[in-house]
Amino acid sequence: MALPRLLFLSLGGTITMVPSDSGGIAPKLGAAELVASVPALKDVAQIDAQSPFKLPSPSLTPEKILDVARQLEAAFRSGFDGAVVIQGTDTIEESAFLLDLLVTGDKPVVVTGAMRGADAPGADGPANLLAAARVAASPEARGLGTLAVLNYDIHAARFVQKSHTALPSAFLSPLTGPLGVVAEGRTQIYCRVQRNPTLPIADGTPVPIALVKVPMGDDGRMLKDLPKLGYAGAVIEGMGAGHVHADVAPILGELASNIPVVLSSRSMTGPVFTSTYGYPGAEIDLIKRGLVPSGYLSGLKARLLLSLCVRKGSGGVSAAFAPYQ
Ligand code: ASP
């Protein structure tokens, strides 16, 4: 039987990095070299390896990920069965969620990377590439949207977070745990997520959305300037279940009368509340003032959903966040 056809797109990241002349490690390897370094891949899939970027992932942008989504859609239309996107781990939780929001259909898109450079002892890149390919090639992974596969864990894009700066086990889904694992070379899915609505790639570039974490005692003085700075919306990472100082609540209400404002939490995980706390600056007050709760989406992920959903005007924000409540 013919092996599945997979597209490998490498965007860069530590998995592609080796020591550079200027000191430290920097992106160098392309997708073809990465694939060649893992001979077992040839038993998993027929692979077309391309390298649209060779960047550290802090230099990726939503525009670039939109380009990647376009390439994935074209590849799936032309008969590829799945795809592996290789990139730096710093922004995997954002890229994976953007792709989840943009790429239609049920073919698996798997994002992976590595915490250790390509030349480092115990480099985790080769094992992650092989595991990612196994998941992308497997029928079990169909219909789950974009996944992140690292350290043999299979995470849903909407839940995955980078939780450590150094360890190969850095990726967690703190709210739910991973959907499954790759064990004995087999993709084992223990729980499934429904696909949430995608947003059209054709609607164009994501718009700038500010992400503001609320620290104790901050008076919110920067908030009123956000529209002047060109932000088309804002995500506020409130305290706990979605709270701010009482004096900041009217400033946020004023902001929400100008641009869409989404309320998420600066806590590591858990849903933003909607109906528990009744004091000024708590979630009931902020929602009454026009803020839209992000549900279980982290601030980073809520910012991306908002940046896609307001491309054509400021409507439809509550509906876009409804599936995540
Ligand atoms: N700074 C690197 C990057 O995100 C980290 C990594 O790939 O693990 O490109």
Key descriptive features of the protein:
Rossmann fold; 23% helix; 8-stranded mixed sheet; 8 helices; alpha/beta; 4-stranded parallel sheet; 325 residues; 2 domains; binds aspartic acid
Topology:
Blueprint: E1 5-10, E2 17-19, E3 25-27, H1 31-36, E4 46-50, H2 62-77, E5 82-86, H3 92-102, E6 109-112, H4 125-136, E7 146-150, E8 153-156, E9 161-162, E10 171-172, E11 180-183, E12 186-189, E13 209-213, E14 233-238, H5 248-256, E15 261-265, H6 283-288, E16 292-293, H7 299-309, H8 317-321
Parallel strand pairs: 1-4, 1-5, 5-6, 6-7, 13-14, 14-15, 15-16
Antiparallel strand pairs: 2-3, 7-8, 8-11, 9-10, 11-12
Helix pairs in contact: 2-3, 3-7
The structure holds aspartic acid.
What can you see in these coordinates?
- This protein is an alpha/beta fold.
- The chain has 2 domains: 5-189, Rossmann fold, CATH 3.40.50.1170; 207-324, 3-Layer(aba) Sandwich (Rossmann fold), CATH 3.40.50.
- Helices cover 23% and strands 20% of the residues.
- The protein is built from 8 helices and 16 strands.
- The strands form 4 sheets. It has an 8-stranded mixed sheet with strand order 4-1-5-6-7-8-11-12, with helices on both faces.
- It is elongated.
- The model has no long low-confidence stretch (mean pLDDT 97).
- Aspartic acid (ASP) is lined by residues 13-14, 56-57, 88-90, 113, 115.
